[in-house]
Structures are given as C-alpha cells and as structure tokens.
Amino acid sequence: MAALTKRQQTEFEAAAFRRLVEHLRERSDVQNIDLMNLAGFCRNCLSNWYREAAEAEGVALSKDESREIVYGMPYEDWRNLHQNEASSKQKAAFELNKPHK
Question: Which residues form the SMc04008-like domain (predicted)?
C-alpha cells in the first residue's frame, strides 16, 4: 500500500464521501429501508455521522442541517418526492436486521 500523508488520506476520504453522497442523491429510487436491510446504514445514518463529526470538533449542526447536506434538499422535500411506504416484507426484514443500540 502506498504511504499516504495524513492530508492525502483526509482528502481521499472526503472525495469518497462526496461521491457516495452524490451517488445516493442520484439513486433516489433506492429507499432508506432497503439500504438499512442490505447494508445496515442509510442516508439518515450518514447525516447523523456527519453531525457527530461536526459536533466532535465543536461545530453545532442540527439534524435538519446535516440531513440537507446528505439529501441535497430539506429532508421533508426529499421524503415527499421520493419516499414510498415500506412494504410488509421490507418492514419484517428491518425488524430482523435493525441495529441494536
């Protein structure tokens, strides 16, 4: 593995994050419950992690602000445009796979 500087590592991680967020914005057909069932995280998880990272650095960021960063629009707007009611099969899978806190 190539030796990366801390700055390069941070820049590459940031670029990968931006690309993931862009991909998720383009794939609005993929529902959060599907992401949770298959990968164990969703857009909301990403926005929570972003907010937690900001807060760890002393930057106040609201839940709504961090969600808008990930969704590219206010969360309620995204929900109204793209979110479908979860099927009983999706809900059952989520109950089996949901994270334990």
Answer: 30-95
